[in-house]
């Protein structure tokens, strides 16, 4: 566990009416259940289970995972190790918010029969929404824009692709469920923290590189319009020779509505290759790199754990330790990286991530209250900006790096 600062800041709970976390539990979760119920012709048993989850969201307590929670029982054991016994019987609102949210998605998968056996086994309840987004005209526009990118100087191209991946994090379907204006709300281009120079010093262009082979671990977040620019960035870094190998971490099962799974990686890759033009060239490069082993995809069970990365198991720690740099995408990964706590915003990012086994970077749009690593001047300017939702509205973004 990180020592010093992390122990002192209070863990975020969802029990304060009117707060952002409370709204997620009280409003976003029921909306997600209803969306899933409307999207599939589930049988009566599944519908009953979804209705029970809906009722539980409103006023229920956390129940232990059922005996048939997964065919092997391994996931049940994992949840026991992740705190199930301590939290069963307590209100969703009184346990750590991160834990409650994460467990909600596990219960939802149970309700729809995801872990089977039965006809719904392995059916992603969020797939209709993910595919709609991947097929949206906006995705076409974003991919077509790549055709002009070849003509801009190399440095600008690299920056554009980094920022494409960063701002792609606004494409979060769960977020949009409770914030209908999220797509159109004006983004504030000036980042609240920008350590991108440090990132590039870790991944220098080969022309200036003194060191040996580089491995990038990219811990992905959302599928669709976030994963597509993530893949473009990885492809570009491979093409430029800044990265020799990449490990893409995704979720082993559907999570937080639009989080990317291995199947979503394939959907995004096919989408790129089918787009033609420059997009297809990026896709082809990645395809080859996956086929020859320079890029690998991992779906570690801890990626869906309700815990901070400080509690990661040894094999995941080894993966990150072997990387030249690990880039974590998105808001949830940020919460898990620094700890889902009420940090003073000027808490050092380096201190909060000191436990992480190697250089680490966060690319995140701000969609929850957690924040570290701001200068006092930036914090003061944000507080004075008249925008009360700068922490949660997805309008602001950061690039933070700890070498
Ligand atoms: O990780 P992501 O996709 O950037 O964001 C996940 C998110 O939408 O979910 C949580 C609330 O449910 C918040 O942390 C955040 O707003």
UniProtKB/TrEMBL annotation:
Cofactors (names): Mn(2+)
Family stated for the protein in its record: Belongs to the damage-control phosphatase family. Sugar phosphate phosphatase III subfamily.
Protein name, UniProt field: Damage-control phosphatase ARMT1 family protein
PANTHER family: DAMAGE-CONTROL PHOSPHATASE ARMT1
Stretches assigned to the Damage-control phosphatase ARMT1-like metal-binding domain: 25-378
Keyword tags: Hydrolase, Manganese, Metal-binding
Species of provenance: Streptomyces lienomycini
Reactions catalysed, as given in the entry: beta-D-fructose 6-phosphate = dihydroxyacetone + D-glyceraldehyde 3-phosphate; beta-D-fructose 1-phosphate + H2O = D-fructose + phosphate
């Amino acid at each position: 566990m990180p020592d010093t600062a992390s122990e002192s800041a209070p863990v975020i709970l969802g029990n304060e009416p009117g707060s952002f976390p409370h709204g997620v539990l009280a409003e976003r979760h029921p909306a997600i259940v209803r969306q899933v119920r409307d999207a599939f012709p589930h049988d009566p048993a599944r519908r009953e289970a979804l209705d029970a989850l809906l009722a539980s969201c409103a006023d229920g307590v956390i129940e232990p995972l059922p005996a048939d929670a997964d065919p092997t029982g391994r996931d049940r054991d994992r949840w026991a190790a992740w705190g199930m016994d301590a939290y069963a019987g307590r209100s969703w609102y009184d346990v750590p918010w991160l834990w409650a949210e994460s467990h909600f998605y596990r219960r939802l998968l149970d309700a729809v029969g995801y872990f089977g056996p039965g006809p719904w086994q392995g059916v992603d309840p969020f797939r209709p929404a993910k595919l709609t987004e991947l097929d949206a005209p906006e995705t076409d526009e974003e991919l077509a824009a790549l055709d002009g990118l070849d003509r801009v100087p190399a440095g600008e191209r690299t920056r554009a692709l980094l920022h494409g991946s960063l701002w792609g994090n606004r494409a979060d379907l769960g977020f949009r469920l409770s914030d209908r204006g999220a797509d159109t709300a004006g983004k504030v281009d000036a980042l609240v923290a920008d350590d991108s120079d440090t990132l590039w010093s870790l991944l220098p262009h080969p022309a200036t590189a003194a060191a040996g082979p580089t491995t990038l671990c990219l811990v992905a977040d959302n599928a669709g319009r976030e994963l597509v620019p993530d893949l473009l960035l990885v492809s570009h870094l491979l093409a430029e020779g800044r990265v020799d190998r990449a490990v893409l971490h995704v979720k082993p099962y559907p999570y937080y509505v639009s989080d990317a799974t291995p199947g979503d990686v394939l959907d995004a890759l096919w989408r790129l290759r089918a787009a033609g033009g420059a997009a297809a060239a990026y896709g082809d490069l990645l395809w080859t790199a996956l086929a020859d082993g320079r890029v690998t995809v991992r779906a570690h069970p801890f990626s869906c754990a309700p815990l901070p990365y400080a509690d990661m198991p040894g094999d995941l720690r080894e993966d990150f330790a072997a990387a030249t740099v690990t880039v974590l995408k998105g808001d949830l990964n940020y919460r898990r990286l620094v700890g889902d706590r009420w940090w003073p915003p000027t808490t050092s990012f380096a201190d909060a991530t000191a436990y992480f086994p190697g250089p680490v970077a966060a690319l995140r749009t701000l969609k929850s209250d957690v924040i570290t690593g701001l200068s006092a001047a930036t914090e003061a300017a944000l507080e004075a900006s008249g925008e009360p939702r700068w922490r949660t509205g997805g309008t602001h973004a950061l690039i933070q790096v700890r070498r």
